[in-house]
Amino acid sequence: MADSRFKSKSYRRVSKRTPKFGSKTVYTRKKHRKVVCAICGKEIHGLKRFLPSDLRKLAKSQKTIARPYGAYICSECLRKLMKEKARSSKYNQ
Ligand SMILES: [Zn+2]
């Protein structure tokens, strides 16, 4: 019988092969979900999926993308947004 804390779905179940043709269920923590662009919904590249407990140990540069709206808007959408802003700014007219 599994430990009662593993009954919750916050743990991921992985079936592992054991020697002598047996198998057992191993319980591991789920990784953080994929980071998605706020405009188009595509996955943002350059960010790894860590366990929430590991996020504290990492440097800031490993958790975000060093550009305006990094880790929030993908690079394509940001490029479009910047062009729109530049073309509609009052200094151009
Ligand atoms: Zn996008």
Gist?
By secondary structure, the protein is of the alpha+beta class. The chain has helices at residues 60-63, 75-88, and strands at residues 11-18, 22-29. Strands 1-2 form a two-stranded antiparallel sheet.
Descriptive keywords:
single chain; 93 residues; alpha+beta; two-stranded antiparallel ribbon; 2 helices; 2 strands; 19% helix; elongated; binds zinc ion
Explain how this protein is built.
The chain has helices at residues 60-63, 75-88; strands spanning 11-18, 22-29. By secondary structure, it is an alpha+beta fold. The protein has a domain at 32-93. It has a two-stranded antiparallel sheet. The protein is elongated and about 75 Å long. The chain starts with 10 loop residues before the first strand and ends in a 5-residue tail after the last helix. The mean pLDDT is 88.
Quote the average pLDDT.
88
Distinct compounds present: zinc ion
Distance N to C terminus: 73 Å
Percent helix, as a range, is 10-25%
Structural class: alpha+beta
- Counting DSSP E segments of at least 2 residues, the number of strands comes to 2
Shape: elongated
